[in-house]
Amino acid sequence: MILATGVSHAYSGVDVLRDAALTAAHGEVIGLIGPNGSGKTTLLRTLYRALTPDQGTIRVDGVSIDSVRPRELARALAVVVQEPAGELPLSVTDTVMLGRIPHLGTWQRQSQRDIDIAAEALDQVGAEHLVDRDFGDLSGGEKQRVLIARALAQQATHLLMDEPTNHLDIHFQHEILALVRQLGVTTVVVLHDLNLAARYCDGLVLLDRGEVVTSGTIDDVLQPTVLEPVYGIRMQRLVAEDGCPQLLFRSLREPHPQTHTHGSREHVEARVR
Ligand SMILES: Nc1ncnc2c1ncn2[C@@H]1O[C@H](COP(=O)(O)OP(=O)(O)OP(=O)(O)O)[C@@H](O)[C@H]1O
Questions:
Q1: What backbone torsions phi and psi does residue 150 show, to the nearest 5 degrees?
Q2: 198 and 251 fall within a common domain
Q3: Do both 108 and 47 map to the same domain?
Q4: Does position 249 have pLDDT exceeding 50, yes or no?
Q5: Ligand 1 centroid to 122 CA: how many Å?
Q6: Which residues line ligand 1 (CB under 6 A)?
Q7: What average pLDDT does the chain have?
Q8: Atom from ligand 1 closest to the CA of residue 17
Q9: Atom 9 of ligand 1 has which residue's CA nearest to it?
Q10: Of 27, 132, 140, 154, which residue is most buried, by most CB within 10 angstroms?
């Protein structure tokens, strides 16, 4: 379980996070959503101690992360964030094996089991064919999948992800998030795509200008009345055949249509709630 309370932070005296709170119960996938610059990455960084907030506490399974040693923290939290280009001059295998380091003793070499776990992680993200490549030569989407494999190989009890679907094609956006759900690992994931959030998250935290506007179930948060003023865009909420709410978007610059677009795929497959 991840519990963040009263988290505030300022960069050079400018407040970017005020009294933010987040709860991810055991096994839940919680989506962190909000417009550009609303503080999602800042809040996520406080959860894995990449950033010490000015105020607030972060607890993982009831223990304050301030009191945990780095190796212990790495066994509890795996992180997938955007890597600066060219940061890892490593092979794909070595990159994924980095995920095993928290499980090795100081001078302990990797075992066959570690190698098997890394290979399985690559397989899970559909990247087994990349095993002999250099990480730096991969495409953006391939790199992203390898970084997710590294997090899976870490076998941490909690997962933090900052826009993991960035660079991924539509197939892998869904594959990766479906996999994350399947893992049953307590997860906090920053997502821009609200429809992916609707489909793969158990709950959402909506940030706007550094404050939590609302948090709760998909049904609570994914409402045009809640989201339109925050994002400054018109939304229409539909329910797909499998019951999953999905949103359609229209710029405020576009005139309000007097009639619906009959015959569109959305109208065939979903009904307006
Ligand atoms: N290192 C930094 N120094 C100064 N300001 C920063 C720093 N990092 C972030 N900020 C500012 O803090 C605010 C919140 O940034 P943050 O990256 O948390 O937002 P975000 O919601 O993740 O945005 P996006 O959706 O665009 O990725 C922004 O105004 C950003 O410019």
A1: -60, -45
A2: no
A3: yes
A4: yes
A5: 31
A6: 11-12, 16, 34, 36-42
A7: 90
A8: 14
A9: 42
A10: 154
Q: What distance in angstroms lies between residue 37's CA and the mean position of ligand 1's atoms? A: 5
Do 253 and 144 sit in the same domain of this protein?
no
Would you say residue 265 has pLDDT above 90?
A: no
Q: Is residue 105 part of a domain?
A: yes
Tell me which residue range forms the domain holding 271: 233-273
DSSP 134: B
Check which CATH number belongs to the domain holding 191 and give it: 3.40.50.300
Q: What is the residue type of 39?
A: G
Question: Which tens digit of pLDDT belongs to each residue from 156-193?
Answer: 999 999 999 988 899 999 989 998 998 889 999 999 99
Domains contained in the chain, number: 2
Task: Report the nearest atom of ligand 1 relative to the CA of 38.
Answer: 21
Percent of the chain predicted with pLDDT > 70: 92
Task: Average the pLDDT over each of 154-158, 179-183, 236-240, 262-266 and give the range with the smallest value.
Answer: 262-266
CA-proximal residue: ligand 1, atom 28 (nearest)? 37
- Do residue 195 and residue 117 come from a single domain? yes
Residue 160 phi, psi dihedral angles, 5° rounding: -120, 130
Token representation of residue 205:
């935290």
- 42, 206, 211: residue to mutate for ligand 1 pocket, most atoms within 8 A of CB: 42
Question: Is 63 found in the same domain as 108?
Answer: yes
Q: Report which of 148, 153, 205, 204 is spatially closest to residue 177, judged by C-alpha positions.
A: 148
Query: Of 33, 47, 40, which is closest to residue 2 (Cα–Cα)?
Result: 47
Name the closest-CA residue to atom 4, ligand 1.
Answer: 11
Comparing CA positions, the residue from 36, 19, 33 lying closest to residue 211 is 19
